[in-house]
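Following the same procedure, backbone shapes were mapped to integers, as reproduced here:
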Amino acid sequence: MASCPVCGGDTGPCERFQPEPFSQCERCGFIFRSDGAADAASDTYTSGAYEETHAGYLMDFAGLSRAARVRLDYIAPWASAGRLLDVGTATGAFPFEASQRGFRAEGIEPTPGFARVAGERFNVKVSAVELADYDFDGAPFAAITLWHVLEHLDEPVSQLARLASMLAPDGIIAIEVPNAGGFSARRSGSAWPSLEPAVHINQFAPASLRTALETAGLRPAQIGTVAITPYLRPLDRLRPHHLVFRAQSLRALHTLSSEHPSGYELLRTVATKA
């Protein structure tokens, strides 16, 4: 088996997500694919195939703008102005909403159709390239955001280290990924909706995300998990299947809070330079 790309530890098959071909680190718990899936995933983005399969979600501008506002509220204690880079910006809702709050925001988006929409609909400056090919101009960023992007990236530690080099001295990197260590993932196994093994080549839990950040030269200022509920439309929050799932997760996690150190669906962090 390949060694862990996050901490270098020994790895073995990830039993929780079998029969999907994930490996898991025995030391930090990082779950990843090491079978060439990264190249196939990259082709999916640049060829337009990802655009075809995810257009419905990524053209939901109202939903994406609502999520962007939730995320801007989250990072506000650490960053509220300055230059911002949104990595994997999709159709541009986040940098648009960030610009409304005072950021000078731009994005990176490897899927050509989405990058075009970001420019046309939101008038957002977007580099239509993969992160590894982004031409950094040397002007540092106050904030770099990766909303459901790190799970897609090959060699996540080296990618994070490069992003860290683009930060201003007091800048932040903010990340949100599906939580592979949460109640939903553990209950569902390979049927977990956020597994998406063809494109989510990395699966993080709080411990492995912390290790990845620290290995990349970053220090988490905050790390934890949050329920998906604030991202949903008010009507969807009241649908029976969501209410049942919420009740089950609250009971399993022994909490009434919408945040939890490790158990909810979404894992997020704000990190600074170490």
The domain at 11-223+264-273 is CATH 3.40.50.150 (Rossmann fold).
